Amino acid sequence: MRALVVDHAAPGGVRLSAVEDPEPARDEALVRVRAVSVNFGEAVGGIDEADDGTVLGWDAAGIVERAAADGSGPAVGTPVISLGAAGAWAELRAVRADTLAVAPPGTDPGALAALPVAGFTALRALHEAGPILGRRVLVTGASGGVGRFTVQLARLGGAHVTALTSGVDTHGAELRSLGAHDVVGEPRDVLHRVDAVIDLVGGATLVDSFEQLADNGVLVAVGHAAGLPERFPHGSLFGTPDRPRRRLVTFHTAGQGNPAGDLGWLARQVHDGLLDPQIAWRGPWAAAGEVIEGLRERRIHGKAVLDVG
Ligand SMILES: NC(=O)c1ccc[n+]([C@@H]2O[C@H](COP(=O)([O-])OP(=O)(O)OC[C@H]3O[C@@H](n4cnc5c(N)ncnc54)[C@H](OP(=O)(O)O)[C@@H]3O)[C@@H](O)[C@H]2O)c1
Fold first, then answer.
1. Ligand 1 mutation pick, 49, 121, 166, 200, max ligand atoms within 8 A of CB
2. For the segment 151-191, what is each residue's pLDDT rounded down to a tens digit?
3. CATH of the domain at 189
4. Fewer CB within a 10 Å sphere, N or C end of the chain?
């Protein structure tokens, strides 16, 4: 089969190459991959840290080519979505069958490929924040892949949504169309204290957003796009009579258990037109290097999807 393999000498750090087909274990299905996505964490860091020849890739959408030998999981011909630690950027992927999400037939594979890391992270980060119906949610890094899902899902969940973006002028209207009630450029511009923050940026944005929490509010620290440390001024973490309890929790998608159920739900929302994957860049997988450089240089605002084959 062909795959995108890490090659640090190539533009973006990957190139198409012939590699061995994966050998599925008894509980794994073999999936014919139709589309994949590239995430921030793969473009920034993931490729640099991998050895030449590695097949990376977390997100893939495709069709079951061979069902698992132990009889588990979807049958041959089923459209599926997979989220895994590696191996998505290839024509064939071996995936533990019980982690495959079944997608509604006829759904665009490119839209499905945008879901695994970004959509699942957005959904589970909101779960971590607790009930949001009738509550105020602030989403930082809102113009990115995870941010756009988070804004839409928070609105679907009944929250008052404030989107924070460094591009208020460039992305404000888009974020409002996705469901944001307010769009701000800085945490200090938030008009009312919020019950939850889903933070995708880290650094000073996290520190300043924590200050915007209402009593019993929670900040879910999901992303670190700024790549900067968090320095809390003395007193920031003091409880006060009007705000005795605010929480900051860490988050990692890999620790969230089997994604199949939630990914299947997200796929149905996309199929039914209730969730837009916000594909900002789509093209053939031969152009992967271009996408990776676009993500590194902050030129892609939304999901980046590659069609495989
Ligand atoms: N913990 C986990 O398991 C998990 C899972 C998924 C993603 N993440 C992390 O979440 C973050 C967002 O992921 P993503 O896929 O949405 O990335 P993305 O599509 O590249 O979006 C990142 C957004 O962060 C904002 N940003 C602010 N300062 C930035 C800077 N110095 N460099 C780059 N972006 C900056 C930008 O939004 P504005 O222009 O709107 O400000 C940008 O659109 C990343 O740090 C990623 O690694 C973590």
1. 200
2. 999 999 999 999 999 999 999 999 999 999 999 999 999 99
3. 3.40.50.720
4. C
